Amino acid sequence: MSLLQVNKLSKTYPNLGGPPVQAVSEVSLHVDEGEVLGVVGESGCGKSTLGRSLLRLIEPSSGEVIFAGKSLTRLSQTEMKAVRRDMQVIFQDPFGSLNPRHTVGYIIGEPLIVHRRGNKAERRRRVEELLGIVGLPQDAADRYPHEFSGGQRQRIAIARALALDPKLLIADEAVSALDVSIQSQIINLIADLQKRLSLAIIFISHDLSVIRHVSDRIAVMYLGRIVEVGPAEEIMQAPKHPYTQALLSAVPRPGVARTERIKLAGELPDPTDPPSGCAFHTRCPKVMDVCRLERPDLVQRQIDGHPTPGEAACHLYPA
Amino acid sequence: MSQQPLLDIEDLKITVGGNAVIEDVSLGIAPGEMVGLVGESGCGKSVTALSIMRLLAEPPMRVAGGRILFENEDVLEYSERALEKLRGDRISMIFQEPMTSLNPVFTIGEQIAETLLLHREISSSAAEARAVELLERVGIPGPSAALRRYPHQLSGGQRQRVMIAMALACEPKLLIADEPTTALDVTVQAQILDLIDDLRRETGMAVLLITHDLGVVSQYCDRVAVMYGGRIVETASAEDLFGHPRHRYTEALLRTIPASNPPGTDLPAIPGAVPPPGRRPSGCAFHPRCHAVVEECPRLVPDLVGGTHRARCWNPVA
């Protein structure tokens, strides 16, 4: 059984004087214990809204989230608080998410206080242990967030997220604000913790090369929907959806020539007025008549010359 | 560079309160050339770019030495009036966040025309016609209607296109682009960089592209300069630099990115963090993070040596 099962989750934002914004539309996915699911897409694709809806930091409009066999959708705030012990989140900006007036020791130990874990001495010991786990010096506990660099602040955020031994970690653009040389340190740390603690992780990022590096499976989002999902290497080696193909070929990599790139015209459509049929049809280089009329379902599809079927929402391939 | 350089920065040093922000910075750009200036935050790449247009916050920043020759004239000796004529006319600049560089209370058309009316003696109707032409060239759909729109009515990619149109209004000899696509999505980034590249081929303007993204530099630039700790540590053609990095920092940076490594493996990380100005180590600023330190590294700053491929390293990659 999956640790997390999401069924047809949608989130609509009201929009004063206009049609509502459909940020996430009928997203279904699952994450197994100890598995890393990468969620990739460009800004406005709904990936962050999805992450927050799973924890009910944003209330979903419809659909269901089942975590460890328990449906979260109708839980009271008190019941939700208990569930959040096992589901933690880290965000992009480690400056914005750490209270500047608290010491690092307090910040990391606060979840233990909130959830009434241990006495003062035990909490102190746990904080010391967590500092060690994320590679920060012990004296960090008595210092303040502003005394640390961006990479170190992200280590603090990770230590805090791990304080209660969660089963699932949602990392929302957790390495995107970091410099290249620091980014790899944090990626290594997250990957190492994932293995040591057999954490399940939903790794949300716009950066495909990071997603590829950390994920077991990858879900690609476009305008609120998952357009393709599958094992990481399959997605990277043989992307099926034309959007995934374009996204892959648009990433500039050192030493890789800029030839034969798939060029996409235009930008993400207005989410208050999504295109009919497949939302990608306005930019798709392989658009057909049916794409404008009918929305393709995300189902197993047989791909020409491919031994195994893949899960994609695209009319190019028979369902 | 066989040609006479368009821009020639010589031994530039800029300080803040006695601390060097950049020093020994020498960089040349030939007409029509696209040069990438890469490095992580705090390395001095943006300060270098701003100094060319004399846009530094002076004080607290101060030019403590060196020359910036643009078409054989030292812009450091320019009067404020001469600088006014230089900026937006012979040299233009675009920034990361087009929303903060565009004025929210004026239309796109008014903002493009402003540049033209300031630098060229033309009528406002001629300026408007030129603005339409520019918007069309940068790929804004319905350019005549777009003239009457305000910045907030455009998407991020379109705003950056408008910034480029403004920068091109007076056909500059040099375009300085400071992280022009960092705020944009990857599919839109490719469109904007392709546009800049097409325009420089068409008009023969030179481009100084400032970025932290090694992939972008490798795909678009003729030559690359890598900065670390306020100095240029390596400079070469893009092909040589990415094919055979010589400085240990460049080598480490290329090895650490996820794209260079098999999925799921430990990334060869660079320990420590980029030192801020004022707390830079002695000798080679990279030495505390370097895996190939030799005796000289902590003591002496190495010179930038070599022919067309130059590195500032005591123990360069063979």
TrEMBL record, chain A:
<dbReference type="GO" id="GO:0015833">
    <property type="term" value="P:peptide transport"/>
</dbReference>
<dbReference type="InterPro" id="IPR050319">
    <property type="entry name" value="ABC_transp_ATP-bind"/>
</dbReference>
<dbReference type="GO" id="GO:0055085">
    <property type="term" value="P:transmembrane transport"/>
</dbReference>
<dbReference type="GO" id="GO:0005524">
    <property type="term" value="F:ATP binding"/>
</dbReference>
<dbReference type="InterPro" id="IPR027417">
    <property type="entry name" value="P-loop_NTPase"/>
</dbReference>
<keyword id="KW-0067">ATP-binding</keyword>
<dbReference type="Pfam" id="PF08352">
    <property type="entry name" value="oligo_HPY"/>
</dbReference>
<dbReference type="GO" id="GO:0005886">
    <property type="term" value="C:plasma membrane"/>
</dbReference>
<dbReference type="InterPro" id="IPR003439">
    <property type="entry name" value="ABC_transporter-like_ATP-bd"/>
</dbReference>
<protein>
    <submittedName>
        <fullName>ABC transporter ATP-binding protein</fullName>
    </submittedName>
</protein>
<dbReference type="GO" id="GO:0016887">
    <property type="term" value="F:ATP hydrolysis activity"/>
</dbReference>
<feature type="domain" description="ABC transporter">
    <location>
        <begin position="4"/>
        <end position="248"/>
    </location>
</feature>
<dbReference type="InterPro" id="IPR017871">
    <property type="entry name" value="ABC_transporter-like_CS"/>
</dbReference>
<dbReference type="InterPro" id="IPR003593">
    <property type="entry name" value="AAA+_ATPase"/>
</dbReference>
<keyword id="KW-0813">Transport</keyword>
<comment type="similarity">
    <text>Belongs to the ABC transporter superfamily.</text>
</comment>
<dbReference type="Pfam" id="PF00005">
    <property type="entry name" value="ABC_tran"/>
</dbReference>
<dbReference type="InterPro" id="IPR013563">
    <property type="entry name" value="Oligopep_ABC_C"/>
</dbReference>
<keyword id="KW-0547">Nucleotide-binding</keyword>
UniProtKB/TrEMBL annotation, chain B:
<dbReference type="GO" id="GO:0005524">
    <property type="term" value="F:ATP binding"/>
</dbReference>
<keyword id="KW-1003">Cell membrane</keyword>
<dbReference type="InterPro" id="IPR017871">
    <property type="entry name" value="ABC_transporter-like_CS"/>
</dbReference>
<dbReference type="InterPro" id="IPR027417">
    <property type="entry name" value="P-loop_NTPase"/>
</dbReference>
<dbReference type="GO" id="GO:0016887">
    <property type="term" value="F:ATP hydrolysis activity"/>
</dbReference>
<dbReference type="Pfam" id="PF00005">
    <property type="entry name" value="ABC_tran"/>
</dbReference>
<dbReference type="GO" id="GO:0005886">
    <property type="term" value="C:plasma membrane"/>
</dbReference>
<keyword id="KW-0067">ATP-binding</keyword>
<dbReference type="InterPro" id="IPR003439">
    <property type="entry name" value="ABC_transporter-like_ATP-bd"/>
</dbReference>
<comment type="similarity">
    <text>Belongs to the ABC transporter superfamily.</text>
</comment>
<dbReference type="GO" id="GO:0015833">
    <property type="term" value="P:peptide transport"/>
</dbReference>
<dbReference type="GO" id="GO:0055085">
    <property type="term" value="P:transmembrane transport"/>
</dbReference>
<keyword id="KW-0472">Membrane</keyword>
<dbReference type="Pfam" id="PF08352">
    <property type="entry name" value="oligo_HPY"/>
</dbReference>
<dbReference type="InterPro" id="IPR003593">
    <property type="entry name" value="AAA+_ATPase"/>
</dbReference>
<keyword id="KW-0813">Transport</keyword>
<keyword id="KW-0547">Nucleotide-binding</keyword>
<dbReference type="InterPro" id="IPR013563">
    <property type="entry name" value="Oligopep_ABC_C"/>
</dbReference>
<protein>
    <submittedName>
        <fullName>ABC transporter ATP-binding protein</fullName>
    </submittedName>
</protein>
<dbReference type="InterPro" id="IPR050388">
    <property type="entry name" value="ABC_Ni/Peptide_Import"/>
</dbReference>
<feature type="domain" description="ABC transporter">
    <location>
        <begin position="7"/>
        <end position="254"/>
    </location>
</feature>
